[in-house]
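Input record, target 12 of the design panel.
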């Protein structure tokens, strides 16, 4: 890597010379006329793809084209939860691959992503729900993933603030994945950007892709707000804008875009040291290192490309929080924001070729794509570099909606806003 190495030694050296020697974390290059690979979208997935193309496959003549700024999309808007507690065989190996990459990410990127394996506990409130979580935990164990079913007595010391005897939603236990946790979302984008740039990848910000040039069924580059950029291969990783960008290549995707909101409270003293999800409504919570309670819930139930949400969902999320832990009613809400989710028809992602030769698609992350970032980049890079799907992402095919090989983790059918 050609970029400056971050280390205790470099911090000490810079502190002695007034911090005058730090270099920008990545360059601001002008776009070249053409590249071997152009990645559209400088979110977590696009940047991770560029990093692994360079590091794993030695493909360094790569540009990441971002219409805004690095970290301005969902990668900098999510609630930072990483986990691999999935049920279905199509999903568990992929998310566990991501989890393993998370565990070594900071060393790989030489960047502090504030990875914190504080665990996640999914609460259950009925006997039927306990059975469902036991099944999920067993499926995880069969794939070699850690999981543990906790009863109420085991939960009480970990989450003493829960309303265990709530008359409507009594807490009966929880499924824990101890290796899950949180990572600082925008540091992940910056870390990948810096590492990719250090291997020669051009990160082009403020450059919008406005069309694809396709000749004889094969992509030959992208039309952008800064002119045409040629490419032998193009990977699209634009999350909430997937349908709009794919339409520029004449593709209609099995994806709807919805808004998801997140919330952070004022900073408070240490309150909760794990991630916790409510099982009788859509509410989940963790605490940031600054002390803010970070929480979220359901998507706003209508299609939108606006990065902001509406009041009924705020009310719904706060009701969930109050039902689970009434004490948080005394905390002041500091900020809330929204991001656009690329909701697929079965709730699982797509990492595949498209009918246009040389054009690859990475999409359909719904509201779970942050935890997938390292594996998504790893597998997308593998597909682009070798032309073959990576084994852990082989099920994420674009044609599965036509062939019926769906990966419907929640079992709610083709109803994207329910996944
Ligand atoms: C409120 C909220 C909470 C969430 N919580 C979690 C969570 O706790 N755990 C979890 O796993 N996931 C979570 N997610 C989901 C996760 O953030 C996303 O699935 C994931 O970040 C999407 O991938 P990305 O990082 O590549 O997307 P993005 O960061 O959105 O990247 C896509 C990029 O493409 C760019 N782009 C779009 N169109 C163009 C164009 N025409 N030309 C050039 N560039 C373009 C955009 O500007 C954007 O920067 C959450 C999302 C939100 C909004």
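The sequence produced for target 12 reads:
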């Amino acid at each position: 890597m050609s970029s400056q190495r971050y280390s205790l030694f470099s911090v000490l050296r810079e502190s002695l010379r007034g911090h005058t020697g730090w270099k920008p974390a990545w360059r601001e290059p002008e776009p070249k006329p053409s590249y071997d690979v152009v990645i559209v979208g400088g979110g977590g997935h696009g940047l991770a793809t560029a990093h692994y193309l360079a590091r794993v496959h030695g493909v360094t003549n790569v540009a990441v084209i971002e219409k805004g700024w690095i970290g301005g999309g969902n990668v900098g808007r999510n609630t930072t939860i990483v986990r691999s507690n999935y049920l279905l065989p199509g999903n568990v190996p992929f998310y566990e691959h991501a989890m393993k990459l998370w565990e070594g990410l900071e060393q790989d990127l030489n960047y502090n992503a504030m990875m914190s394996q504080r665990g996640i506990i999914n609460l259950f409130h009925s006997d039927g729900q306990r059975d469902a979580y036991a099944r999920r935990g067993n499926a995880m164990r069969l794939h070699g993933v850690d999981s543990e079913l906790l009863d109420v007595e085991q939960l009480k010391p970990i989450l003493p603030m829960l309303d265990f005897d709530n008359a409507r939603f009594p807490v009966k236990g929880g499924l824990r994945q101890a290796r899950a946790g949180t990572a600082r979302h925008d540091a992940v984008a910056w870390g990948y950007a810096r590492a990719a740039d250090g291997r020669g990848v051009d990160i082009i910000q403020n450059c919008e892709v406005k069309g694809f040039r396709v000749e004889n069924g094969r992509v030959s580059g992208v039309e952008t707000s800064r002119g045409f950029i040629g490419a032998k291969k193009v990977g699209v990783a634009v999350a909430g804008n997937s349908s709009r960008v794919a339409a520029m290549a004449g593709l209609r995707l099995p994806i709807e875009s919805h808004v998801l909101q997140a919330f952070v409270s004022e900073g408070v003293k240490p309150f909760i040291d794990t991630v916790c999800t409510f099982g009788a409504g859509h509410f989940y919570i963790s605490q940031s290192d600054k002390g803010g309670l970070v929480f979220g819930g359901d998507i706003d139930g209508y299609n939108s490309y606006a990065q902001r949400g509406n009041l009924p969902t705020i009310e719904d999320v706060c009701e969930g929080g109050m039902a689970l832990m009434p004490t948080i009613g005394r905390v002041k809400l500091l900020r809330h924001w929204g991001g656009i989710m690329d909701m697929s028809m079965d709730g699982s992602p797509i990492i595949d070729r498209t009918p246009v030769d040389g054009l690859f698609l990475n999409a359909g992350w719904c509201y779970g794509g942050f935890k997938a970032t390292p594996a998504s980049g790893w597998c997308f890079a593998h597909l682009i570099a070798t032309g073959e799907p990576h084994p852990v992402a082989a099920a994420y095919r674009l044609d599965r909606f036509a062939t019926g090989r769906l990966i419907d983790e929640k079992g709610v059918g083709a109803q994207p806003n329910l996944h």
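Residues 120-180+256-344 form a domain with the D-Amino Acid Oxidase; Chain A, domain 2 fold (CATH 3.30.9.10).
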